[in-house]
Amino acid sequence: MVLKTFGWSFAITALGLAFAAWQWGWEAFGVVLILSILEISLSFDNAVVNAGILKKMNAFWQKIFLTVGILIAVFGMRLVFPVAIVAISAKVGPIEAIELALDQPEQYEALVTDAHPAIAAFGGMFLLMIFLDFIFEEREHKWLAWLERPLAKLGKVDMLSVCIALIALLVSAMTFAVHAHTSTGAQDKSATVLLAGVAGLITYLIVGGLSSYFEDKLEEEEEREHEEEEKAKAAGKPVSAVGLAGKAAFFLFLYLEVLDASFSFDGVIGAFAITNHIFWMALGLGIGAMYVRSLTVYLVRQGTLDDYVYLEHGAHYAIGALAVILLVTIQHEISEIITGLIGVVLIAASFWSSVRRNKRLEPEGSTVDA
């Protein structure tokens, strides 16, 4: 099972590291390896959240997520995205941006760093909405019951998560504006931060809304189909829901890709602390993204989220922490080590809580297979 799910990841790792050593030497080998580990540590919570969505899809769409999805993740976010940032910031074409990255890496990094406030605002708002919608929803299992119970009651207030997210964005933009006015040579990009944050919020509402809509329609169609099959079991033909299922799966897939893009912001920006070489960066982060994809499918096929019920909670709290960190980094620099450790600690704590819960249930005959 492990080899089947992670086989491609192992193969890509071996080929990628071998190619880096052959093409650029042992320094590139080491940098690519470090970047791979960085991406995995920063994105483990991404895999857990993705698994919660991917388990609703059939085997075909899971395979699409691992093939087409990984191409989007590697080439789209880990290679094209940094180049696009530079092209837009420097107002040059993509070819000129690539030449700038190869010939003038310091200037390339400076342009990406200059665009960081907008990137952080977009990604921070998207991830913050995911976290808020999770904690404001009534759930069967509660990890931190003392906190989640009252928040679930508050969640009955319409549009509360949107209001809180907008308040967080306003505070971030105003703080950034004050900092710019009191610092010599600092640029006031508060308007850019506001625009990017609102764009992140709108993206979440559109993609998440479409995903929920088609998922609900699919459930309604499946219920109707089941009723008709019961009525005409002997002679009637079953109603096909393949087309609708395709729409639902497509929008869930789209949601997953936008989610992955938001998660990758910190990894892409953090990679510049290690190297300015865009191909080393794309190769290292791409290898890490492969493991995140494989881990997502592994969690789904093993039923890990059903066995360890608090894992999803830990991942969403990690998302909330990452959203806050992104908004804070609009003005202040935070080490990627802190970002990665917070996610790992929260998920490890939720896993340990799940294990303790399962042990408590064993005497009652409700044991969960590990």
Characterization of this structure:
- By secondary structure, the protein is mostly helical.
- Helices cover 82% and strands 0% of the residues.
- It contains 14 helices and no strands.
- It has helices spanning 2-24, 26-54, 59-90, 94-103, 105-114, 116-135, 145-154, 160-182, 190-231, 242-271, 278-302, 304-307, 311-328, 336-361.
- Helix 1 runs antiparallel to helix 2, helix 2 crosses helix 14 and helix 4 crosses helix 5 (105-114).
- It is globular.
- The two termini are 15 Å apart.
- Residues 210-237 form a coiled coil.
- Keywords: Coiled coil, Membrane, Transmembrane, Transmembrane helix.
- This is DUF475 domain-containing protein.
- It holds the Pfam family DUF475.
- The chain crosses the membrane at residues 30-53, 65-90, 118-136, 157-179, 191-214, 235-256, 268-292, 313-331, 337-355.
Present the secondary structure layout.
Layout: H1 2-24, H2 26-54, H3 59-90, H4 94-103, H5 105-114, H6 116-135, H7 145-154, H8 160-182, H9 190-231, H10 242-271, H11 278-302, H12 304-307, H13 311-328, H14 336-361
For the termini, the CA-CA separation is 15 Å
How many helices in DSSP terms? 14
Strand content: under 5%
Tell me about the largest β-sheet: none
- Estimate the global geometry from the Cα principal axes: globular
Q: What portion of residues is helical? A: over 70%
* Average predicted confidence as pLDDT: 76
Q: Structural class, please? A: mainly alpha
Number of strands: 0
